[in-house]
Amino acid sequence: MPRDSQILTPYLHVRLNARTARCFGDHATYNLDCTQEVPLNAIMFTSKTEGDNKEMTQEVPSVLDAPVSVLEDGSLDPVYEGKAKVLNKAIQDIGMGKYQWQLFIVIGFGWSMDNLWPIVTSLIFTPIRNEFNPTRAPFLTLAQNIGLLFGAVFWGFGCDIFGRRWAFNLTIGITAIFGMAAAGSPNFAAIGIFAALWSVGVGGNLPVDSAIFLEFLPGTHQYLLTILSIFWSLAQVFATLVAWPLLGNMSCQQIDTECTKSKNMGWRYFMIVMGGVALIMFFFRFVLFTLYESPKFLMGKGKDEEAVRVVHEVARRNGRTTTLSLEDLKVCESLALPGSSTSQQVTATATVKRKLQKLNTSHVKALFATKKLAFSTSIITVVWAFIGLGFPLYNAFLPFIQATRGASFGESSTYLTYRNTLIIAVLGVPGCLLGGLLVETPRVGRKGTLAGSTILTGVFLFGSTTALNSNSLLGWNCAYNFMSNIMYAVLYAYTPETFVTKDRGTGNAITASANRIFGIMAPIVAMFANLETSAPVYVSGALFIAAGLLVLILPFESRGKASM
Question: What is the value of pTM for the model shown?
Answer without folding.
Answer: 0.69
